[in-house]
Design a protein that fits this description.
This protein is mainly β. The chain contains 2 helices and 27 strands. A hairpin with a 3-residue loop joins strand 4 and strand 5 (98-102). The longest helix has 13 residues, at 2-14. It starts with a helix and ends with a strand.
Length: 403
């Protein structure tokens, strides 16, 4: 044994290029007590090198501790003593755990490809416990940043190729917890201000934009012209980025059934001129012979140019409005009921109105009256009364049936 020790020491001292102490694995070589070596030169100098035997079965180089409650330390330290965590970083092991870390106020950096001079390496653990990948100043428990321009995948999860249980998923085991995936600018991550993203809680999954930020959905990489937009007012646009109603579709839509719950008539949009300048919901209108495609307020009895009733009187709204916004002949300001139920201004001077009476135009501008002369009423009937009006002028519910 003594011969081996002398040989080893001579090997270390004889060669100017050798490390201060080099131990080549041998089951009979042991080191007892303290082993300390000080290196005063600059640069990267190997103080101790251990080489395991070329034995595939048991040739790994290792340090072994026979006392499982003891510990050993590999430290990189400055003014503090080796083995002390204050100001030191290294590998710390006991019989129950292995710890890799920095000392007090000392972060830990992991790197590949010899990137030891990088400020963060490739994985960084800050002194507050936050973990950064690609950043040395992680603001959250796990922060991942990708440098450069273009679209960079910073996170990827793949499920197993098992159709029964191979789905890739994120799980939040606490149903009261929240998971947030944000794309943000000046706002802080996790806040809805200036941020948009995916927000999930134990009771709901939310996809949306932050304050002042619309939500855009697209396919086929059409990010510059989204196929569907929800603006900051809650209006939804399909085929348009500037929806003006709750649902604004620029294009063709096909449905099996439309259930309209907000109105009771079918209307078209018209420009309307009133002889006295008065145009109100419930007034009877006729075709304007001076302005093609437009209407005027009625003003004579049994007028065969009668076109309908302006919708919206008595609290009844249009159920469906038709028109073509880019064509002057098929667009206007006022919805005119062509069929359905609508309140109409009626003059009962010529005769009291009863449910079921046929109505036509009257001499009173914008008012209907009861049909008394059926010969003259041919082609001038605008509908049937559904409520009564004993006398005077007032609103009567009318089932619009032009004939």
């Amino acid at each position: 044994m003594k011969t081996k020790w002398i040989s080893l020491l001579l090997l270390a001292l004889a060669s100017p290029t050798a490390q201060a102490l080099q131990i080549i694995g041998d089951p009979d070589v042991q080191v007892n007590g303290k082993l300390t070596q000080t290196v005063t030169s600059t640069g990267y100098t190997s103080v101790y090198t251990l080489l395991g035997l070329n034995d595939p079965g048991n040739g790994a180089t290792r340090f072994g501790l026979s006392n499982p409650v003891s510990g050993f330390f590999f430290n990189a330290y400055g003014s503090t003593a080796p083995g002390s965590l204050a100001g030191a970083a290294g590998l710390f092991a006991t019989g129950s755990r292995l710890a890799i870390g920095g000392g007090i106020n000392t972060p830990v950096s992991f790197f590949a490809n010899n990137q030891y001079l990088s400020s963060a390496g490739h994985l960084f653990i800050a002194t507050d416990g936050n973990i950064g990948i690609g950043t040395s100043t992680p603001p959250a428990k796990l922060s991942v940043e990708a440098a450069g321009t273009g679209y960079t995948s910073i996170f990827r999860a793949r499920g197993l190729a098992d159709p029964g249980n191979g789905a890739t998923r994120f799980e939040v085991s606490n149903p009261q917890a929240q998971i947030t995936v944000n794309a943000y600018g000046s706002g802080a991550p996790g806040l809805l201000a200036n941020a948009g993203g995916l927000f999930g809680t134990g009771s709901a999954m939310l996809i949306g934009g932050g304050i002042g930020t619309p939500l855009k959905l697209f396919a086929n990489n059409a990010f510059s012209s989204a196929h569907m937009v929800i603006d900051t007012q809650g209006n939804i646009g399909i085929g348009t980025a500037s929806p003006t109603t709750k649902l604004d579709v620029a294009g063709e839509a096909a449905v099996d059934v439309i259930n309209i719950r907000g109105g009771s008539d079918l209307s078209e949009q018209f420009q309307i001129t009133g002889a006295t300048g008065r145009v109100e919901p419930g007034m009877v209108v006729c075709i304007d012979p001076e302005r093609p495609g437009e209407l005027i307020i009625s003003g004579k009895a049994y007028d065969r140019t009668v076109a309908g009733i302006i919708s919206g009187a008595g609290g009844l709204r249009p159920g469906m409005m038709m028109g073509q916004i880019d064509h002057p002949m098929a667009h206007g300001k006022y919805p005119v009921a062509l069929t359905g139920r609508v309140y109409c201004w009626v003059d009962a001077t010529a005769g009291a109105i009863e449910p079921g009476d046929l109505l036509t135009t009257s001499m009173t501008p914008g008012h209907a009256m009861k049909v008394l002369d059926f010969t003259h009423a041919h082609g001038a009937i605008l509908g049937k009364a559904m409520t009564s009006l004993p006398e005077g002028q007032g609103l009567v519910l009318v089932l619009v049936t032009l004939q």
